[in-house]
Amino acid sequence: MNKSMLRYRRQILIFGEESQKKLLKSKVAVIGAGGLGSSVLYYLASAGIGEIKIVDYKEVDMPDLNRQILYTEKDVGRKKAEASKERLEMLNSEIKIQSIDKKIDEKNIDDIIKDCDVVVDCLDNFSARYILNDACLRLKKPLVHAAVEEMRGQATTVIPGRTPCLRCIFPNFRDRRMELPILGSTPGMFGAIQANEVVKLITGYGETLVNKLLIIDLKTLTFDLLKIKKRKNCICQGVGT
Amino acid sequence: MPKIKFFARFKEEIGKDVIEVQADNISLKELLENLSKDYPKIKEFVEEGLVAVNHEVVNDLKMKIKNSDEIAILPFFSGG
Predict the structure, then answer these.
(1) Does residue A196 register a pLDDT over 70?
(2) Which of A114, A53, A39, A106 has its CA nearest to residue A81?
(3) What domains lie within chain B, and their CATH numbers?
């Protein structure tokens, strides 16, 4: 095993060197570098995703530090795009990390994700999620979704044409304008699940959350894996495989 | 008798894990409407959450309910 593969030795034991090469050749966009994004980005960088795009337009704020573990007290006031790139380059200097200091919208999203193999939804609202969902359908990009609140959350993986999209599962969600309660370990856990999904999608190892919705309540330690179906008349119905 | 299970915030708001109801050859929509007479919050839960029958999320509430069915009403989340 060559030196650059040495850091991946323990995971190569799971899925082999060829799969590791697939990860090193892959490109993944992580939309949102907050609670979910912190966890996803750490694990994708350490797993050796060859190129990671980080998209976030906000600055680090002190109340972010209970869950956004990419950042330290010294990062308060800095742009998340810049601070997260710096941190991840310290973790893995052999991968390429691109940071995009932008809020996603209908005009810029296609350009951001068009050259990526997988897109990860680490957003904090459904208005932006619908924009991301629709772009992934247009460009046929796998989308790994999670969302959290308090000590609970949900996750699924959308494969355009093959699975329900976010609009099928969560139609007409209206975002509440309030500060949501959240314990840091909740997005930590869901971000880890999302990173797992990305690695499985790229390597083909294991089973993914395709056509399934995972709902976890960490307060009561209830885990539910529900089957999901496409919704009639949803915009995703016209998307071919 | 069909069972209706509540999860997370919904369970806390309604104060029960499970409600068992008498229902014979009616649709899921009718069942939930009947139930919301005693538990008015259910209407809000259905609008804000997901309804699953036998561990499958349903998009159409017109489906007929059987005695052995297990219905779940779950909230979903939006934060990141």
Answers:
(1) yes
(2) A53
(3) 3-75 (3.10.20.30)
